[in-house]
Design brief:
Blueprint (H helix, E strand, L loop, with lengths): L4 E7 L1 H11 L8 E6 L3 H17 L11 H12 L1 H8 L17 H4 L2
Length: 112
Amino acid sequence: MGLPIARIELIDELQVKISNAYSKLSLAEKPTLFVEFHGSENSVSEQMAMLRDIAMENDALSFDTAEQPEERSALWQARHDTYWATSAWRPGARVLTTDAVCRSPALPNASR
């Protein structure tokens, strides 16, 4: 669909539960996809509408948005704090972090 996604993160229901406790959030404890778009208010609204359609066509359980900057910051901060949240949940356990990166096709040419 060519949606210009700026950031995207997927966390499972256990990580949502751990993050809720650590960051004092009340997200539904189910697999959650965090997506961020950049651009004008109109373009971001259009992009979110397209993503909502795609998500609902593919049986998403819900589609929630964080409109206010404070809400968005709290969600992304919770995502960035997952290491600390997990460490606090299992004191003394070794936390292993993993990440997958999918590069934009345009990025290889950006440095040339």
